[in-house]
Amino acid sequence: MKNEKYSKMLIPSILSVSLLTIMAPTAISPALAAIKEAFPDISATQAKLVLTLPTLVMMPIGLFSAKLTARIDKKKLLLTGMVLFLVFGVAGGFVSNFKLLLLMRVFFGLGLGIMTPLSTSLIFDFAPDTSKRSKLLGIQGASNQLGGLIFMSLSGILASISWRYSFLTYAFVIVSIVLTSLFMPSIPPYKARQGAAGNAEEKKMSKKIFILAFFALMIFSCYFVINTDLALFMDVEHIGNARECGYALSLMRIPAIVAGILLAWIMRNLKDWTMPFATVIMAAGYLVIAYADSYGILMLGCLIVGLGGGFALPPISLYLPRIVTPRQRTFGVAIIMSVAQLGQFISPYYINIFVSGGTGEALRMRFVVSAITTIVIGFLVLAFTYTLPKKPLDD
Prior knowledge:
The chain has a single domain, classed as MFS general substrate transporter like domains (Growth Hormone, Chain: A). 53% of the residues are buried. Residues 1-5 and 192-203 have low confidence and may be disordered. The chain is globular. Helix content is 75%, strand content 0%. By secondary structure, it is mostly helical. The chain is built from 17 helices and no strands.
């Protein structure tokens, strides 16, 4: 950061990674119905593994990646993750066997698992000021949604030609590789995290981090129901095709982008009430989708879900400094992000506890369950905040 060139280009480099991380597992969701059709022997739940399996891999890899930052330069780790993301992300479109496709998704998850916690922890590293951090995390959330806007739309267009082409959207990571290589400074490991000192820090980490991780898990699980179920819902109800699904999933990112930009202002005014406010909005969107009988109404529901998600997802990380010390934050971010991403994997299985089946009525009820769960989690987060100190912890 001593070099002025780095100080100007560092944040754009980090945000270019943020364009990829959240949207990555579900970027090909507009092609889900076509993938199931290409492999007729698989069930709908098995087809969803293409979207959810990478998130299962991400959890242990994200934690392992955070531990490696005690010994390895963060920039080198990030570049390694991006290369894996590129090779195995694109390779998924070249296989002809469903098991081999799942294997590609596993290795893709390895790269994504390395990238995701680092993209957020770098903001904590380079934005120590609380207000600036809130602003950057909001912008990062907007970048995540912008990635969804671009790649869901592109994926839907490509999937209407062939489901294989939708995997080409992962080639965008080449831009991030170039930006990171040229403009991100080396970030040497923290000496304090080596040897016995590192073990002492881990033992002292507050157990509340796992409560926060659970809330992140459930918020992500509810938010990504729309990615795993919308294409099948539209197909069964004859509301639209893969291209129109891609438009719906991409356009819902527009209000989410606006929400990310406004997040710092919203949090200044609502403070700890931000999460209940956000989850009520998201739940309202799911109820609109659940009772939609036309593409226009369904699109309205998607836009409302996007707005609520834009307000709900970034604040989870902002509670972290009130739970762990600065030296613990990289590992803390890894716990939150890894467990949160696991929410994408458990999303269909969680909803299956309450409702299963592929009929139109069953698919509608899946959105209703998501709405109810979202509101409950939002108010549980509010109750949890009353157990936390008001200011960030110091080492």
